[in-house]
Amino acid sequence: MVQAWYMDKSADDPRRPHRGEPARPVGLEQLRGLGVLYWQLDADKYENDPELEKIRKERNYSWMDIITICKDKLPNYEEKIKMFYEEHLHLDDEIRYILDGSGYFDVRDKEDRWIRIFMEKGDMITLPAGIYHRFTLDEKNYVKAMRLFVGDPVWTAYSRPADHFEARGQYLEFLAQTA
Does 18 belong to an annotated binding site? Predict the structure, then answer.
């Protein structure tokens, strides 16, 4: 089951857990209130998993590829890691399914505080279009993930501030409705 918590304010190595003191865990219900969706799947059978196929069909996730993020496999590794960790949003949902390894997605809550979501093998997450977020590996420095899209992939990240985009406005309207 996914683990999530409010982060401390330390600027220390982002690959560390950064659990706030006192500990403030975040549950699936609170993540859903931010538009973040989560599934636990069997990553060992991702190539023939009826549960994954059902989710893809229901949510129209028609495009898929697999990325391995580690020094040996990802060209321009250091540059990409820094880019992934810059706070940004996308105009489309970001869907990731962890097939091996682990890392962190950080998302902003309604009060603009960071929530860290620990993702490991079998975890699948959807971050809604317009949510400010970032990604980093953990101290193991390795993750293999499936990237899914509705239609053709769009890789554009918009660094904060990006409040002028329609996707951001729609996301803020969603948050207002869940308040």
Answer: no
